[in-house]
Write a structure and sequence with these properties.
This protein folds into 2 domains: about 240 residues, Alpha-Beta Barrel (TIM Barrel); about 55 residues, Alpha-Beta Plaits, CATH 3.30.70.20. About 30% of the residues lie in helices and about 25% in strands. It contains 10 helices and 13 strands. The strands form 3 sheets. The chain has a 9-stranded mixed sheet with strand order 7-1-2-8-9-10-11-12-13. It has a two-stranded antiparallel ribbon with strand order 3-6. The longest helix is centred in the C-terminal third of the chain and has 13 residues. The protein binds iron/sulfur cluster (2 copies). The site of one iron/sulfur cluster (SF4) has 12 residues, from helix 1. It catalyses: glycyl-[protein] + reduced [flavodoxin] + S-adenosyl-L-methionine = glycin-2-yl radical-[protein] + semiquinone [flavodoxin] + 5'-deoxyadenosine + L-methionine + H(+). Keywords: 4Fe-4S, Iron, Iron-sulfur, Metal-binding, Oxidoreductase, S-adenosyl-L-methionine. GO terms for molecular function: 4 iron, 4 sulfur cluster binding; metal ion binding; oxidoreductase activity. Pfam families: Fer4_12, Radical_SAM.
Length: about 300
């Protein structure tokens, strides 16, 4: 049976699609967006995440680790060296302050279905369902397809949030089974895209064009609005002009930058590349709303 590496399951979510939803976060992505709010989603391998706030600096985790995989790093704390760790979880069990956790758990289709069906009454009552997010969930397209087929038996809808950097065959695999797709565009300029995410945007643009011609479900395009990266008028206009050329785009959503993921970078021993950049709110983006009048799709700022 298909499995997927899950790093979080969020119940009662209301901002990741219609109604009350369970969001299933799958681990692994080839992009490295500087502002990514889920740095623990990027690597495909399991990881040990350290949380600074509850840690009392007792040093017990270092003592207990037979692999000598934990270093005390001045700027971050008790960080695990992935090349030495064997995921025995001793440091997690022995940390009485719950300052360490394993990120990434392999689940079968049946295990996931059993988990998400716990909230079936909420989905029915609110018109909600299951959202697959990540990371890039479409690396597990066969898993998503199998789950979606089973969920259809209960009349539960599924939604996929994708960055689009994925082989087109993976996208084709889920198209007939997913009711909604949320599709991210980070920048229309390919060089700039590479600078911001580590990859150029050709595959992403090609996949969106393909979807707009072939996908029968509801397709929403999302633009993370990141100060100093893609918030200038030219970049936004280029994006909107491109979307205007496509069919079947249900809505365009702007997502204001936030820095909620910052502590997790520290907990993985990684530098947060956005520095001290402040989080934005919906009202910070009202300055671009005058641009929407030239286009006829539905807009939203979250
Ligand atoms: S992570 Fe836990 S075990 Fe390690 S030093 Fe902090 S409190 Fe102690
Ligand atoms: S999971 Fe095991 S090997 Fe890895 S850091 Fe913790 S104690 Fe060491």
């Amino acid at each position: 049976m298909e499995t997927a590496r899950v790093f979080n399951i969020e119940r009662f979510a209301t901002e990741d699609g219609e109604g009350i939803r369970t969001v299933v976060f799958l681990k692994g992505c080839e992009l490295r967006c500087k502002w990514c709010a889920n740095p623990e989603s990027q690597e495909f391998r399991r990881e040990i995440l350290f949380k600074k706030a509850p840690c009392t600096n007792c040093g017990r985790c270092i003592e207990i680790c037979n692999q000598k995989a934990i270093d005390l790093r001045e700027e971050f704390g008790f960080i695990t060296n992935a090349s030495l760790c064997n995921y025995c979880e001793r440091c997690v069990d022995y940390c009485v302050n719950n300052a360490r956790c394993v990120v990434g758990m392999d689940m079968s289709v049946d295990e996931l279905i059993k988990e998400v069906l716990k909230d079936i009454e909420y989905y029915k009552m609110s018109g909600g369902g299951i959202t697959f997010s990540g990371g890039e969930p479409l690396f597990y397209s066969r898993f998503i397809k199998e789950c979606s087929k089973k969920l259809k038996e209960y009349n539960i809808t599924t939604l996929v949030e994708t960055c689009g950097y994925i082989d087109n065959k993976n996208m084709k695999e889920i198209c007939d089974y997913s009711d909604y797709i949320f599709y991210d565009i980070k920048h229309m300029n390919s060089e700039k895209h590479k600078e911001l995410t580590g990859k150029d945007n050709k595959l992403i643009i090609d996949n969106l064009i393909w979807l707009s011609n072939n996908y029968k479900g509801k397709l929403s395009v999302r633009y993370p609005y990141i100060p100093g990266c893609n918030d200038d008028t030219d970049s936004i206009k280029q994006f909107l002009d491109f979307i205007q050329t496509l069919d079947n785009i249900r809505e365009v959503v702007f997502l204001p930058y936030h820095r909620l993921g910052m502590p997790k970078y520290e907990g993985l021993g990684r530098k947060y590349e956005m520095g001290d950049m402040k989080s934005l709110t919906t009202s910070d983006l009202q300055c671009i709303s005058h641009m929407f009048k030239d286009y006829d799709f539905h807009f939203k700022i979250l």
